[in-house]
Amino acid sequence: MSSSTIRLKEYDYSQAGAYFVTICAQNRECLFGNVVGAGPCACPEMTLNDAGWMVKTVWDEILEYYPGVDIDAFQIMPNHIYGIIIVGAAPRGRPVSGQPQTGKRGNGQPQGVARTGMANHVEMPVRSLGG
User: Fold this and answer.
1) How far apart are CA 90 and CA 68, in angstroms?
2) What's the distance, CA 87 to chain centroid?
3) What pLDDT digit, counting tens, does each position of 89-118 carry?
4) Distance of CA 44 to CAs 39, 77, 129, Å?
5) What ranges do the domains of the chain cover?
6) pLDDT of 43-99, one tens digit each?
7) Least crowded by CB within 10 Å, which of 63, 64, 78, 110?
C-alpha cells in the first residue's frame, strides 16, 4: 500500500463543503453484510448483518454528536461504506455563521489523511459551501 496522499494539492480542505467519504474495512474483509439477488434477472440488494446495522445507526446519529455537520447520501457495502458529509453546514447544507473554518486543531475539523488502500482513487470535494 502506498503512503502517498490522495488529496488534491490545490484544495483547502479546512473550508466548509460537501465531501464524498469512503471507509474500507481492515484488509477489505466483508464485515457489514452481503449483496443478494445479483443474478441476471434480479436487482441486487445489500442485506446488512449486525455490524452493518451498527454502522447505519452510527451514520444516522452523526447529527446528534457533531454540530455544524450534515449528512446526505450513504451506502453500506460488504467491505466498505461511502457517503457524503457536509462540513461547516447548518441543516440543508448552509454555512453556519460565525463557525470557525480555519482547519486548525481543536475546531472540530479532521486532521491528517487516512490511507484507503483503494487504487486509482482520488479524494475530492463534492461542492464548496458559500463564496
Assistant:
1) 6
2) 11
3) 665 444 444 444 443 334 444 443 344 444
4) 8, 11, 34
5) 17-128
6) 888 999 999 999 999 999 998 888 888 999 999 999 999 999 998 866 544 444 444
7) 64
For domain 17-128, give its CATH number from 3.30.70, 3.40.630, 3.40.1440, 1.20.58.
3.30.70
Buried b or exposed e, range 74-96, using 16+ CB within 10 angstroms: bebbbebbebbbbbbbeeebebb
- Distances, alpha carbon 17 to alpha carbons 100, 109, 112, in Å: 13, 12, 17
**Do residues 13 and 88 lie in contact, with contact meaning Cβ atoms separated by under 8 Å?**
no
Distance between CA atoms of 53 and 91, rounded to whole angstroms?
A: 25
